[in-house]
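This protein record is not my work; I was only asked to verify it. Where you disagree with what is written, explain briefly why. This is what I was given:
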Amino acid sequence: MSLTITLTGTGSAQLVPVFGCDCAACRRARLQETYRRRPCSAVVKFNDAVTLLDAGIPHLMDDWAAGSFQQFLLTHYHMDHVQGLFPLRWGVGATMDFSHTVEPFVTFELQGLRVTPLPLNHSKLTFGYLLESAHSRVAWLSDTAGLPDKTVTFLLNNQPQAMIIDCSHEPRPETPRNHCDLNTVIALNEVIGCPQVILTHISHQFDVWMMDNPLPSGIEAGYDGMVLVLD
């Protein structure tokens, strides 16, 4: 069965448009819904199971009825990745179980989907994930500034078909704190060699830069609603 990942949010904590901002990207996003960016998140579907990857969208309870998904897979506990959990936490019916923990590079299964936690570089303990079916392999790598050496080595040894990675910033002279810029992503993929790189956690400043600058071949900007199907 195919592994499907839908990007439900591709923005940074500021979102796009940014409140009070009059830059070209924010003006465009106010006029055209397709350019808006919600908190970085995704929906993973495999074997009729639905996993919500991060929970930063505040109105999750409006988008997902009780029983319509199996679990959350969280990267870290910053507000823009978990704020949608709070109304669900105080709902009625089945109790949400927050007791599960993950260990670096220790694989587990979710309804037949193999999941391997990958340490990332961020201000708080953060994990990306390698998601694997029998024939598909995709890496989710956000939030992060570059990647730890052990994570790079793991990805070299377990080549993903696609890589969805934090890229909050346009090219910078030095790697920013907590989030990648485009130069960092390019340098990482020169080592990893993934054929399809999709950028997420995109800031309005990076959107402005992309309005006038093309991305390198093999790298594309994700957008809210983008669907990735791996057979």
Remarks:
- The CA atoms of residues 42 and 144 lie 16 Å apart.
- The chain has seven helices and twelve strands.
- The first strand starts at residue 3 and ends at 9.
- The chain has a mean pLDDT of 95.
